[in-house]
Each structure stands twice: as structure tokens, then as C-alpha cells.
Design brief:
With 185 residues, this protein is of the alpha+beta class. Helices cover 26% and strands 22% of the residues. It folds into two domains: 3-132, no CATH class; 136-185, no CATH class. The protein has helices at 3-18, 84-87, 118-132, 146-152, 167-173, and strands spanning 25-31, 41-48, 67-74, 77-83, 97-99, 107-113. Helix 1 packs parallel to helix 3. The protein starts with a helix and ends in a 12-residue tail after the last helix.
Length: 185
């Protein structure tokens, strides 16, 4: 099974597991705009895209890069370009090689062989880290479902990425309930 197919299957599983909007995590093809590689894919970016909320049914949704989890280059091996802070949060598998590039101060370069089983667990760990630390494009106090959220003691908003901007969700996760039968604040 190819790298891309395997990653896309993993992304589908993560989207289902976290109840995220369809296609909210995806591989984006980076295409060269100049030189001998003009028009050719030169790398991929693993991205999180927060769909607009509420959705506008009259507008065609154009998938764009909202937040890049990491960049991926592959030829004879797979090289992941990971932001330094994110890199420091997740253990590097034994079969990975970290390339130190003085010319790239923003990213760590982690290299895997194409057949590494650890590669996919490592990718999954980074995706989950980015989902759990995702900051929504906007913030708000709470939505109209605050009473139902209070009753269930958790956020029930349908768009889990958009809901990352809900201040009340953060209170619920901390055990603070402001409304209804379980009110404790």
C-alpha cells in the first residue's frame, strides 16, 4: 500500500475518532511554480482545515491550508519537517534520523525509511497533538446549546474544530458547569 493511501486511511480514522468535519485533516500537494520542476508536486503538507460555521450551503467549499501540521518530502525516504515546539513534545522512534540543518531554524527534519511501521504511529501522534492543541479561528463565549452541554457535562457542538473557540467548552472540560441541574459555579 502506498504512503499516501495509508496516510489517507489513517486520517479518515482520526476524523471519525474525534468527530471532526469530513476532510478537515488532509494531505495538500505543494506544486512548484518555477524552475525545472514547474507544475510538478515537490512535497506535501499535512493540514487541518476548519470549515466555516455555520456553513454556507450556497458557496462551494474550497479546501485550503488553514494550519500545517507538518511538511512531508519523499523520494527514496520520507522526510518530515516539524515545527520545533511540536517536535519537542513527541518521542522520536529509534528508526528515525533527525537531520540538523543550520539553514532551517523553524523546523526539525525527521527522516524515516519508506517501510517504517513507526512512521505512521509518529504521524498519528503529531496529528493528535495538533488536534488537541488546535486554536479555532475565532473565539466566543458559548453557543445556543449551552444548556444541553451543561446537562451532558461536555461540548456537543457538531463542528469540533470550531468549538475549540468556545470559552464554555474549556470550563466544562475543567469541571465548571454554569447552567442547569449540575450547576456548580
Amino acid at each position: 500500500m502506498s504512503f499516501e493511501i495509508r496516510v489517507n486511511e489513517m486520517l479518515g480514522g482520526i476524523i471519525n475518532q474525534y468527530g471532526l468535519p469530513e476532510n478537515s485533516i488532509y494531505l495538500f500537494s505543494n506544486v512548484s511554480t518555477k524552475g525545472k520542476n514547474k507544475g510538478m508536486e515537490i512535497s506535501k503538507s499535512l493540514c487541518i482545515s476548519e470549515p466555516e460555521y455555520p456553513s454556507n450551503q450556497n458557496m462551494k467549499q474550497i479546501q485550503s491550508k488553514s494550519y500545517v501540521i507538518m511538511n512531508i518530502q519523499y523520494q527514496s525516504c520520507i522526510e518530515l519537517l516539524i515545527r520545533n515546539k511540536q517536535f519537542n513534545e513527541i518521542v522520536i522512534p529509534d528508526d528515525a534520523v533527525v537531520k540538523e540543518l543550520k539553514s532551517d531554524v523553524l523546523f526539525k527534519h525527521v527522516v524515516f525509511s519508506e517501510d517504517s511501521d513507526n512512521l505512521y504511529n509518529f504521524l498519528k501522534s503529531h496529528i493528535i497533538y495538533c488536534i488537541e492543541n488546535y486554536e479555532a479561528s475565532c473565539s466566543f463565549g458559548c453557543c445556543s446549546q449551552f444548556e444541553k452541554c451543561s446537562e451532558l457535562k461536555r461540548c456537543i457542538h457538531e463542528n469540533k474544530l470550531y468549538a475549540k473557540g468556545c470559552s464554555y467548552r474549556k470550563n466544562l472540560e475543567a469541571g465548571k458547569i454554569f447552567y442547569g441541574v449540575y450547576k456548580n459555579q
